[in-house]
Design brief:
Shape: globular
Helix content: 25-40%
Radius of gyration: 13 Å
Low-confidence stretches: none
Order of helices and strands: EHEH
Distance between the termini: 17 Å
Number of strands: 2
Mean pLDDT: 82
Largest sheet: 2 strands, parallel
């Protein structure tokens, strides 16, 4: 599953991913899909995106998602 909200828009998504054993691609954006291209601001884009995604990975792991669940 590819989730542009990094599982933030629907609080049930982490549970659904976990229960399905699905893989998930976490995306980063500022704002919503409708506003994300309107004047995004970063002091350090790479560091801020890494920090955001690390937090979302920790969230997924805390919800029971397995690292590389579907990797063969």
């Amino acid at each position: 599953m590819n989730d542009v909200s990094a599982l933030q828009f629907d609080p049930r998504m982490a549970e659904i991913v976990r229960d399905a054993g699905a893989g998930v691609v976490l995306m980063h954006m500022q704002g919503t899909p409708q506003t994300m291209q309107q004047t995004p601001r970063y002091d350090d884009v790479v560091a801020e995106v890494i920090t955001f995604l690390a937090g979302r990975i920790a969230f997924c792991r805390g919800a029971g998602a397995k690292k590389n669940a579907n990797r063969r």
